Amino acid sequence: MVEQLETIPINSLIGEGSEFKGEFKIKDLLRIDGYFKGTIQTEGKVLIGKTGKVESDLQVGILVVGGEVKGNIIAKKRVVLLSTSKVKGDIISPSLIIEEGCYFEGRCTINKELIRSD
After folding, report:
1. For every one of its 118 residues, what pLDDT tens digit does the chain have, with 9 covering 90 and above?
2. Inter-residue contact 82 to 96 (CB < 8 Å)
3. Residue 101 neighbours by CB distance under 10 Å
4. What is the pLDDT of residue 31?
5. Using CA atoms, how far apart are residues 53 and 100, in angstroms rounded to an integer?
6. What is the tally of helices (H) and strands (E) in the chain?
7. Which H or E element spans position 33?
8. Sequence ranges of the domains in the chain
9. For 19, what's the count of Cα atoms within 13 Å in the CB-facing half-sphere?
């Protein structure tokens, strides 16, 4: 169901116990296990681990959330909310997968027009 992360190079990592504030623009994969506040833009993937906390508007290709997100999400391919996730914000994506047990407060718009035919 969810693509294997092992095949995608991790460009950036915000480790558990670390904090980062600012603007992230990356190519492939960003993994967040610490705290991030700012904006994130990528055509690739963002993975927020169980210990990750994000206060950000996200524009991504794919987002997988296991921790907390406070902010709006625009994904061009897919959003996956794992059972441990807590999300407060609106989601726009062509595909949304929600595992039982996650917390989601916001609006969701499924928009197939976001998919690009590259």
Report:
1. 444 444 566 667 788 888 889 888 888 888 999 999 999 999 999 999 999 999 999 999 999 999 999 999 999 999 999 999 999 999 999 999 999 999 999 999 998 776 654 4
2. no
3. 10
4. 92
5. 20
6. 0, 13
7. none
8. 7-111
9. 3
Task: Give, as one character, the DSSP assignment of residue 2.
Answer: P
The 10 Å Cβ neighbour count of residue 28 is 14
CA pair distance 3, 87, nearest whole angstrom = 21
Contact (CB, 8 A) for 80 and 95: no
Could you tell me whether strands 103-105 and 86-88 are parallel, antiparallel, or unpaired per DSSP bridges? parallel
Q: Please tell me the total number of residues recorded for the chain in this structure.
A: 118
Query: Which two three-digit tokens encode residue 23?
Result: 């603007």
* Count of other CB atoms within 10 angstroms of residue 6: 6
Beta strands, E only, 27-93: 29-32, 35-42, 45-48, 53-65, 68-70, 73-81, 86-88, 91-93
Q: The tokens of 95 are what?
A: 């595909």
